[in-house]
Amino acid sequence: MTEKLRPFVFSCDAHVAEPPDLFVSRMPAHLKDYVIHGEVQGDIRITRIGEQVILKINTNFHTHKTGEGDAAFNAQSGAQTGAEKAPDRSCTDAADNFVSDCAVDTKRRGARDLDLRLADMDRDGVDAELVFPSLGLMLPRIADREGQRTACQIWNDWAWDYCAPVRGRLIPAAMIPCIDFDDALAECERAAAKGFAAFCLWEGLNNYNDPRWDPIFALAGELGIPLVFHTGVGNINIRALKGPGGALFNYTRQMNDAVDVITQLVAGGVLDRNPKAQILFAEHSAGWLWGLAERMDEVYNGHAPSISPKLSRLPSQIVRDQVHCALQNDGNSSMAIRKGVGIDALLFATDYPHAEGTFPFSKQVIDTLVAANPDVSTDELVAVLGGNAAKLFKRANLQPQVDARRAELMAAA
User: Which helix (H) or strand (E) holds 392?
Assistant: First the structure.
C-alpha cells in the first residue's frame, strides 16, 4: 500500500494521559482516601490510591523498542532526521519544541498534547483511535463504592471535554463503575447521554454469569454502544508469577482474563439473552478466539446434562455474533481465525503510546500482515483495519470515511 492509498485505519486500543492532578483536584474532600495519583522516586514511578501503593514501574518502562538511542529508533521506523539533528534529541529543536516533519517523537508527548497526538497519528497512518485513560486504568482498584463511582465520573467528564476538539479522531471510552449494578447502569445512561460511543467494564470480577448484568447489556445493545474490556483493567493480579520468566508469563496470560469474561457471559446466558450487545477485548491478542469457541461447543454438547442455563444458540455462534478482539502484532494467527469466527471478530489496534504497541511502525505492521496473508481480500482488510470499528462504534460516525477510502482502493485496483 502507498502512503496515500490505504484503507481507513482505526486503532481500538490507545491511551491519553490525564493531567497528573486530575483526581487530586476534582475528588471531593471526604473521598481523599480514594484519590489516584502518581509520583516519581528515583528510577521508579509509583501509583497510589490515597496512601496505598497500587503499582510500581521503572520510569523507562515505555522506552522505545531498539534500546540503542533515538537515531537507531528513527532509522528502524523509517523516519527522516535532519542533518543537524543530534541522535539523542528526538524530534525537538534547540528550544525543545516539537518538529513535526523530522523524526519520531520518542517521548510520545502526544499522549498529553492534542497537536502532537495528531502528528503522531498522521505519521503512523492511523485515522482514528478509541482511547482509554492512563492513571484511570487504576479506577477498578478503588474499593469504595462512592469513591469509584465519583472517580469514573471525573474521568468521563474530563475525557469527553478533552477529546471534543478532535471528536472525529479520538473516541474516548467511558469508564463504568462496577462495584454496584445500579451505579453501573446509571453511569452508562449518563455517559450515553453525553454521546460516548463505548463503555469500559472491569475484568476479574468473576460474576459475568450474573443476570443482574442484563439491564446494562440490554441498554448497551439498544443504544448500539459496545462494552469494552481492556487488559489489566480490573481486579487482576498483573504480576501473578514472580521470579524467572515472570514478565513473559504475566504478559502472555493476559488473554486468560478475556477467556474468563467471554466464557462467563456465554455460559451464564447474559449474551444469549441480550443478542444486540457487542463486546470487545483490547490488548489480549485475538488468535485464540476460535479455539475457545470450539471448546465451549465441545463442553456444551459433551456435558449437556450438566449445562444450565440452556442457550438458544451454540456458544460458537454467540461468539461469532457478539464477540470481538483486537489484534496488534499477532496478525497471522488473527487472520487464520476469521475462517471460524468470521472477519467481524477482528479489529486493529496500536496501543499508542505504549512501547509494546505498534507505534511508530503501524504501517510496516499492516504491510507485513498483508504480505504474509495473500488470501486476505481487500474487503477483509478494509473490515479489520477500520470497517468493523465503524460498525461497532456507530456513534463515532466513521462509516462515511471508511466507505470513501474503500472506494478509492477499489477504483485503483
Answer: helix 388-392
List Cβ neighbours of 80 (8 Å cut-off, separation of 6 or more): 74, 101, 102, 103
222, pLDDT greater than 70: yes
Q: Which strands, in side-by-side order, build the sheet including 279-282? A: 174-175, 199-203, 227-234, 279-282, 323-327, 346-348
The rounded percent of the chain whose pLDDT value lies above 90 is: 77
Contact 156, 191 (CB under 8 A): yes
The mean per-residue pLDDT over the stretch 272-286 comes to 97
> Hey, which residues does 58 pair with through a beta bridge?
44
Given this model, what pLDDT does residue 68 score?
Answer: 53
Q: What is the pLDDT of residue 4?
A: 60
CA angle (229, 118, 357) in 5-degree steps: 45
More confident residue, 411 or 10: 10
Give residue for cell 471531593. 28
Is residue 348 within 8 A of residue 326, CB to CB? The reply is yes
In terms of C-beta density within 10 A (0-12 exposed, 13-18 middle, 19 or more buried), how is residue 77 classed? Answer: buried
Which residue's entry shows cell 474490556? Answer: 229
159 contacts 153 by C-beta, under 8 angstroms: no
Residue 87, preceding bond cis, omega within 30 degrees? no
Question: What's the whole-model pTM score?
Answer: 0.90
